[in-house]
Amino acid sequence: MEMAKFFTAQLEREVAASRKVLERVPEGRNDWKPHERSMAMGYLAALVAQMPAWIAMMLATAEFNLDDKASSGNFQAKPSESREALLKLAENSAGKAKSALSNATEEQLNAPWSFKMHGKTLNSGPRHKQIADTFTHLAHHRGQLTVYLRLNEVPVPAIFGPSADEPAA
Prior knowledge:
The structure is a single chain. The mean pLDDT is 94. The radius of gyration is 16 Å and the shape is globular. Strands 1-2-3 form a three-stranded mixed β-sheet. 55% of the residues lie in helices and 9% in strands. The protein is mainly alpha-helical and 169 residues long.
């Protein structure tokens, strides 16, 4: 199987799982966080919604340098004012990723890509590995968001299997 097709199938599964969580993010709670060092819920939800677009960015660039404010500002998650806006952000992000993957070549997916900050390379390797890491990163933050839902008395959706709120049928 071609890597682009593999990643597109994975993207579809991850987007569907994320949508289940994002649909439940309570409005008016963007500033809520479980601990002073935790991310605010609005930022975290926007991050989950936006992360699929990272794939398109990875395929279009050789690196992402957080010191470059012009480009990094495009990927700074900003809380949405409504659930509708959050879901639209997620849909747009997924669309960008699907479009980029539909045009991706094996050569492009094997080319190096780097993540840099403060003059240092934090992560570097073939794009396909960086894209795979993005899916893992997305699952991590989506899991965080389900904890935020629980702590706000919002039913947690079944994602990879039943949840306490959505047991097996």
